[in-house]
Design goal:
Elements (H helix, E strand, L loop, with lengths): L1 H8 L1 H25 L23 H12 L2 E6 L2 E7 L1 H10 L6 E2 L3 H6 L10 H17 L5 H19 L9 H16 L9 H16 L3 H8 L1 H7 L3 H23 L9 H12 L9 H32 L1 H14 L15 H14 L8 E2 L4 E3 L2 E3 L4 E5 L1 H4 L42 H18 E4 L27 E4 L2
Parallel strand pairs: 2-7
Antiparallel strand pairs: 1-2, 3-4, 4-7, 5-6, 8-9
Helix pairs in contact: 7-8, 7-18, 8-9, 8-14, 9-12, 9-14, 10-11, 12-14, 14-15, 14-16, 14-18
Length: about 500
């Protein structure tokens, strides 16, 4: 009798235990069923999925290790969210170029709603994206992207940048904010029709917010907000990003209001003016995508993309020149051979300077500043490499795996300009060079970025020799990037010694 009484008292525990076992078995079977035709991957754990296998501070390192085990295509569970990872040059080119329609849609994530809510260029889809990208690419071309007129804008910005460097009189300083300001002024001149002084407090604040957001969206806390939105909302993990977006929006909105007041269809000075004119042309249409939301978001997309990526690459370039002074000297020798003292570099000079061109390309490859790329989403069920990727599945074309693909690069983890030179020292293009991504979603400002990188980098090395501060050896220089969606070097100080 005592045994029966004890069993009945514990029956509730047994029931709960049985239910948990049943739910776990159901969950396991559900995972197997839902993934039986999808690419293979590690078995996910309840609740956390495969997060135990991923370092959220540096997920690209974990993904490289996982790709060694699971191959070119595999499925990972980030909490309850499934992602298909594409790793390596061949498979990413096949997906983004050969099957562009199947992988051309941008993935949706909670943090992206904070950024754009389906508007703009970077994170929109469908007709909104097509209309905004078509208009933006056309307008950038009208304002000289890839032409002499933009070259002149960059050269004009190179002059005050050099003077700002000289003002430090060869003493240690951090170049980051100055480089950001110079690069940003190029896109500002295209968007707003004007540049800003480097010490303008509003301009400095805008650049700081852009950089902060570029870092924050790649931090573990914000990643967890994407995987567990309810948790992020409770803890306010996205509030700082949201505040920065609102502040940027307020600035752009005021610029838009000012341009409307002074608008003259015969005097289009920048992207905002061109957009306002397009709005007038579309005003009679029943349905148009040229509304205020898309204006504010497109401008913010251009402002951010036109500032962060190129400036970060140049910041890496100076660090790498200090780390490898023999490479710096060889670049400077080539500059002296082809560019006269006192003469600013031009885009045409690049054709005569294969080593400098190779060094710039290798800086982009090695620095790997957007390691995860921006994820895609399948618009329909997609059959790819013998697998079924269901509609709406997030797909990550993992850029690090291309830029560090050991089947494509002789020394992928070393800084080696010879990756872009043949045996005769001539520059050679490399198909696996994809820092701007590839396919229909490739960076719209690629031509502008290439011009900026060559003119700014060459102009700075023409004017200065960069070396570490006293007491710091080249071996002490840290090439480990910080944490973020964009990989910025660990902050460093440099001495810029004028060459003339």
């Amino acid at each position: 009798m005592a045994f029966i009484a004890y069993f009945l008292a514990r029956a509730d525990v047994l029931v709960y235990f049985s239910i948990c076992i049943a739910l776990f078995i159901y969950w396991i079977n559900g995972v197997k069923k839902s993934t039986e035709k999808m690419p293979p991957g590690p078995m996910p754990l309840p609740v956390i999925g495969n997060l135990n296998l991923v370092d959220l501070k540096r997920p690209y390192e974990s993904l490289m290790e996982l790709s060694e085990k699971y191959g070119e295509i595999f499925t990972l569970h980030f909490g309850p969210k499934k992602k298909v990872i594409l790793a390596g040059y061949k498979i990413i080119k096949e997906a983004l170029v050969t099957q562009a329609e199947d992988f051309g849609q941008r993935a949706i994530a909670p943090i992206l709603d904070v950024f754009s809510n389906g508007h703009g260029i970077t994170f929109s889809n469908g007709e909104v994206w097509k209309s905004m990208r078509r208009f933006t690419v056309s307008t950038l071309r009208d304002f000289g992207m890839g032409k002499k007129s933009v070259e002149a804008r960059i050269q004009d910005e190179l002059i005050p940048l050099i003077e700002s460097f000289k003002s430090h009189k060869s003493k240690p300083f951090n170049t980051h904010l100055l480089i950001n300001s110079a690069v940003s002024n190029v896109i500002c001149s295209i968007i707003f029709g004007k540049r800003f002084e480097y010490d303008d407090p509003t301009f400095q604040k805008l650049i700081e917010m852009l950089e902060e957001n570029a870092i924050l969206i790649g931090t573990p806390k914000v990643m967890l907000y994407n995987y567990y939105p309810f948790l992020g909302s409770l803890l306010g993990l996205h509030k700082k990003i949201k505040q920065n977006i609102q502040d940027l929006r307020g600035f752009i909105s005021q610029c838009s209001i000012n341009r409307r007041l002074d608008f003259d269809a015969n005097d289009i000075t920048g992207y905002i003016d061109a957009y306002l004119m397009k709005q007038q042309q579309e005003s009679s249409k029943v349905e148009t995508y040229f509304n205020e939301e898309n204006l504010l978001t497109c401008v913010r997309d251009l402002f951010g993309a036109g500032t962060e990526t190129s400036s970060t690459t140049i910041y890496w370039g100076i660090l790498l020149m200090m780390k490898y002074p023999e490479i710096q000297k060889r670049v400077q020798d080539e500059i002296k051979t082809h560019i006269k003292p006192g003469q600013l570099p031009t885009v045409e000079d690049r054709q005569k300077m294969p080593y400098t061109d190779a060094v710039i390309h290798e800086i982009q490859r090695f620095s790997n500043i957007v390691p995860l790329n921006v994820s895609r989403s399948t618009p329909t069920d997609v059959y790819f490499r013998g697998y079924l990727i269901p509609k709406g599945t997030e797909v990550m074309p993992f850029l690090t795996s291309v830029l560090y693909d050991k089947t494509q690069w002789k020394t992928p983890y070393d800084f080696n300009p010879n990756h872009f030179l043949d045996e005769n020292g001539k520059f050679v293009r490399h198909d696996a060079f994809m820092p701007f991504s590839v396919g229909r979603r490739a960076c719209a400002g690629e031509a502008l970025a290439k011009m900026e990188l060559f003119l700014f980098f060459t102009g700075l090395l023409q004017a200065f020799t960069f070396y570490p501060p006293p007491g710091v050896s080249r071996e002490d220089l840290n090439l480990k990037p910080g944490v973020g969606f964009i990989l910025v070097p660990t902050p460093y100080m440099t001495c810029a010694k004028p060459n003339y």
